[in-house]
UniProtKB/TrEMBL annotation:
Residue span, BACK domain: 89-154
Pfam families the UniProt entry points to: BACK
Keywords: Kelch repeat, Repeat
Name used for this protein in its record: BACK domain-containing protein
Matches recorded under PANTHER family: KELCH-LIKE PROTEIN 32, LD33804P
Organism (species): Brugia pahangi
InterPro entries with a match to the protein in the record: BACK
Record lineage: Eukaryota, Metazoa, Ecdysozoa, Nematoda, Chromadorea
Tree of life domain: Eukaryota
Keyword NAD among UniProt keywords: no
Length: 233
């Protein structure tokens, strides 16, 4: 178990024996990694609950605790997501912090993927945050599609001014414009499909008149022509 340090192992064993431990914040990652690798789920849960509480109470920097959660826990971990969601609640504080520009792709991706930030009111803010990060990290332009995949453009593209503003902002980052244009095209198509498949449109009667013809059983077939049928020579 190369990831487990002596400090981490000591604290996990102490927790198993007594049900409680105290450790310094500088030891957080060592303890969290050890608890996670040794599958002491109750300790992982308690640590992440404490991390989330500290974020929400503004007693610890959200970026540093976000980093610890991303570094120590797997992407599918519900406890990691707990901390990420707590950090997402403090999104404006994170964005205002100069350290935001130093976020790794993994940290930024996890942050903007949080369900906390998926409402339509967040679309423009998430997009602007991505632009801001890419402006200052242009070497990471290849991450743009993955990041933009978390921007629900469909929620705002029905307004022409929004579409223009989105394209205008994309020009702030070299080579980003064509990528954003593709996402906008996808969003417009998705919006169109949603409109076609909405219940009110599916149940809407046809605008043209429908003809109903009955009495087919009384139709009289035309009488055959009298005489012989010959072939032209």
């Amino acid at each position: 178990m190369p990831n487990i340090t002596n400090v981490g192992l000591y604290n996990v064993v102490a927790f198993i024996q007594s049900g409680q431990i105290k450790f310094l914040e500088t030891e957080l990652e060592n303890v969290l990694i050890a608890a996670n690798d040794l599958r002491v789920t109750s300790l992982v849960s308690l640590i992440c609950e404490e991390m989330t509480a500290r974020i929400l109470e503004n007693t610890s920097p959200p970026i540093s605790l976000l980093y610890s959660a991303i570094a120590c826990l797997a992407p599918q971990s519900q406890y990691r997501n707990m901390v990420v969601d707590g950090a997402a609640i403090k999104f404006h504080d994170i964005l205002a912090n100069p350290e935001f520009l130093k976020l790794s792709f993994e940290m930024l991706y996890a942050l903007i993927s949080s369900p906390v930030l998926q409402g339509p009111e967040w679309v423009s803010e998430i997009y602007k945050a991505i632009i801001f990060w890419l402006q200052n990290n242009p070497e990471h332009i290849f991450y743009a599609p993955a990041l933009l995949d978390n921007v629900n453009f469909k929620e705002i593209i029905h307004v022409a001014d929004n579409r223009q503003e989105i394209m205008k902002k994309s020009l702030d980052v070299p080579d980003l414009g064509p990528i954003v244009q593709l996402f906008l095209m996808d969003a417009i198509y998705a919006k169109f499909v949603d409109h076609l498949t909405s219940p009110q449109n599916r149940n809407q009667p046809l605008s043209s008149s429908i003809y109903t013809v009955s009495g087919a059983q009384t139709a009289i077939a035309p009488a055959p022509l009298r005489g012989t049928l010959g072939l032209a020579s």
